[in-house]
């Protein structure tokens, strides 16, 4: 399979993380040759991916492309069949999800992201369970300083929040461990266009000021790439294209890029 870049040339994703990796900062996450799946059947095959320190990297692709399986393998929810997953210099492959978390990897799932009967404050405090008890209060204050509107909602139960507010609470809870890497699984899923755009352009984009590195799966391709440094496009379990987000965003065939249909040629 070859991927046309619109200028007559063809480029494959490479072992260093694809186009632009040479200009990227030091590695926060490096995925090399990763295959994973269920019941001995791989869902993702030979995936390479790179997230530099302080970068936002978005994974795009149609439903069934393998995006969620990739995140599960990175997070320790699935044991890789082959390949490596490294957080900085630390090998994550084979670690349980709780062990990955304790290595400063935060995670915001697509669904079930808040505890509906707990208050906003209690939800955020739950993210501090790996921390010494004496540090939880201070860290809560630091997180709310990043998202001041959550302070005004501190006593409201999670079940009484809007979709956008729940997602902000979930992100705040994940930030409690001061993660090196934050993984977001379709953060705007189920949100109306306006709160979805605000979540991406304001609240998620603001995380770059904290120094955290972000790996995000997102269906709103254009909006996600507008705040991302680089993007990876998956189709049928493989990375079929990677480039700087701004370069992909400028392509007139962006819709086909998102679907992994960019002048594919079977050889």
Task: Quickly describe the structure.
With 267 residues, the chain is α/β, with parallel strands linked by helices. It has helices at 67-75, 97-101, 120-126, 133-146, 149-152, 163-175, 193-204, 221-227, 245-249, 254-258; strands at residues 27-38, 41-52, 56-60, 82-87, 90-91, 105-108, 181-185, 213-217, 230-235, 238-244.
Order of SSEs: EEEHEEHEHHHHEHEHEEHH
Question: In percent terms, what proportion of residues is strand?
Answer: 15-25%
- Number of continuous helical runs: 10
Poorly predicted regions are 1-20
Order of strands across the widest beta sheet?
A: 6-7-8-3-9-10
Helix content: 25-40%
- What about the largest sheet? 6 strands, mixed
Note the overall shape. globular
Number of strands: 10
What does this structure look like?
It is a single chain. The longest helix is centred in the middle third of the chain and has 14 residues, at 133-146. The radius of gyration is 18 Å and the shape is globular. Mean pLDDT is 86; it is low at 1-20. It has a six-stranded mixed sheet with strand order 6-7-8-3-9-10, sandwiched between helices. The protein has helices at residues 67-75, 97-101, 120-126, 133-146, 149-152, 163-175, 193-204, 221-227, 245-249, 254-258; strands spanning 27-38, 41-52, 56-60, 82-87, 90-91, 105-108, 181-185, 213-217, 230-235, 238-244. 30% of the residues lie in helices and 24% in strands.
């Amino acid at each position: 399979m070859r991927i046309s870049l619109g200028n007559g040339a063809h480029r494959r994703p490479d072992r260093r993380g694809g186009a632009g990796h040479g200009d990227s900062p030091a590695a926060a996450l490096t995925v090399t040759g990763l295959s994973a799946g269920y019941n001995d059947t791989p869902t993702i095959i030979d995936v390479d991916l790179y997230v530099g320190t302080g970068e936002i990297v978005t994974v795009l692709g149609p439903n069934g492309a393998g995006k969620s399986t990739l995140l599960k393998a990175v997070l320790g929810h699935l044991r890789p069949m082959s390949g490596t997953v490294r957080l900085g210099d630390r090998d994550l492959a084979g670690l349980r999800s709780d062990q990955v978390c304790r290595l400063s990897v935060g995670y915001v799932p697509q669904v079930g992201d808040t505890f509906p009967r707990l208050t906003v404050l209690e939800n955020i405090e739950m993210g501090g369970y790996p921390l010494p008890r004496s540090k939880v209060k201070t860290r809560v204050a630091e997180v709310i300083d990043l998202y001041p509107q959550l302070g005004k909602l501190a006593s409201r139960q999670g079940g009484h929040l809007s979709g956008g507010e729940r997602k902000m609470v979930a992100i705040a809870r994940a930030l409690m461990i001061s993660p090196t890497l934050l993984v977001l699984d379709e953060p705007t899923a189920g949100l109306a266009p306006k709160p979805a755009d605000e979540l991406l352009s304001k609240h998620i984009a603001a995380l770059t000021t904290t120094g955290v590195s972000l790996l995000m799966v997102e269906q709103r391709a254009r909006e996600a790439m507008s705040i991302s440094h680089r993007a990876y496009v998956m189709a049928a379990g493989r990375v079929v294209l990677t480039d700087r987000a701004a370069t992909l965003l400028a392509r007139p065939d962006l819709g086909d890029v998102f679907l992994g249909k960019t002048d594919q040629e079977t050889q």
